[in-house]
């Protein structure tokens, strides 16, 4: 059991039969009335973000989250197969559960798989990945090296905005957090 005094960003708690990660929190001591903690929580099962207020000193269960390094192997009928790099155990994750991460996931990539009591909650990609440009409009002479952008389709099917000088076949470093171009590889 933990109390609101133990809150910190990234801590996982169990409230109302759901697993929540604390995104941010603030202790509030009003001039009149009891102190309370205002928090922003992310549901690890659904991805929904919710504002929640707890009275100061409220106690709740801490949710033990396990993170394992796993390698993405292949897609099998809408399920994605991952292998634990230490135990070689394989698990399948439904595509709907990792829909947002799929646009940057390629075979043999290592990811962090988040689990709670052997229930897969999701995956965390590396902050940046190197992907090849499959299709983009050709640059036109006179386009500036900086200051403009065009859409490019990557090898995983993701579409991002890139500078005009990028052409098909280039390998790019892409930020997976906000789906942006970083640089050429």
From TrEMBL:
Copy the pathway line from the protein's UniProt record. Protein biosynthesis; polypeptide chain elongation
Task: Give the matching Pfam families.
Answer: EFP (PF01132), EFP_N (PF08207), Elong-fact-P_C (PF09285)
- Where does the UniProt entry say this protein principally localizes? cytoplasm
Question: Does Protein biosynthesis count among this protein's keywords?
Answer: yes
Domain named Elongation factor P C-terminal: residues: 129-184
UniProt xrefs under SMART domains:
EFP (SM01185), Elong-fact-P_C (SM00841)
Domain Translation elongation factor P/YeiP central: residue ranges: 67-121
Which keywords does this chain's UniProt record carry?
A: Cytoplasm, Elongation factor, Protein biosynthesis
Supply the PROSITE patterns for this chain: EFP (PS01275)
MF annotations from Gene Ontology = translation elongation factor activity
Cell location: Cytoplasm
User: Which CDD domains did the record assign?
Assistant: S1_EF-P_repeat_1, S1_EF-P_repeat_2
Q: List, alphabetically, the InterPro entries matched.
A: Elong-fact-P_C (IPR015365), NA-bd_OB-fold (IPR012340), Rib_uL2_dom2 (IPR014722), Transl_elong_fac_P/YeiP (IPR020599), Transl_elong_KOW-like (IPR013185), Transl_elong_P/YeiP_cen (IPR001059), Transl_elong_P/YeiP_CS (IPR013852), Transl_elongation_fac_P (IPR011768)
Protein family membership = Belongs to the elongation factor P family.
The entry's function note states: Involved in peptide bond synthesis. Stimulates efficient translation and peptide-bond synthesis on native or reconstituted 70S ribosomes in vitro. Probably functions indirectly by altering the affinity of the ribosome for aminoacyl-tRNA, thus increasing their reactivity as acceptors for peptidyl transferase.
Q: What is this protein called?
A: Elongation factor P
Lineage, please? Bacteria, Bacillati, Bacillota, Bacilli, Lactobacillales
Give the gene symbol. Answer: efp
């Amino acid at each position: 059991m933990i109390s609101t005094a133990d809150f910190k960003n990234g801590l996982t708690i169990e409230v109302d039969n759901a697993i929540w990660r604390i995104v941010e929190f603030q202790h509030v001591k009003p001039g009149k009335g009891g102190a309370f903690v205002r928090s922003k929580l992310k549901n690890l099962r659904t991805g929904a973000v919710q504002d929640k207020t707890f009275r100061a000193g409220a106690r709740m269960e801490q949710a033990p989250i396990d993170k394992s390094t796993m390698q993405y192997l292949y897609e099998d009928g809408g399920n994605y197969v991952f292998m634990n790099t230490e135990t070689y155990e394989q698990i399948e994750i439904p595509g709907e559960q990792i829909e947002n991460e799929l646009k940057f996931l390629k075979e043999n990539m290592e990811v962090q798989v988040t689990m709670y009591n052997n229930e897969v909650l999701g995956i965390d990609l590396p902050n940046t990945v190197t992907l090849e440009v499959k299709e983009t409009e050709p640059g036109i002479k006179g386009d500036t090296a900086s200051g403009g952008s065009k859409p490019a389709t990557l090898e995983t099917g993701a579409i991002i905005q890139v500078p005009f000088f990028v052409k098909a076949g280039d390998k790019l470093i892409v930020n997976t957090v906000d789906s942006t171009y970083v640089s050429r590889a």
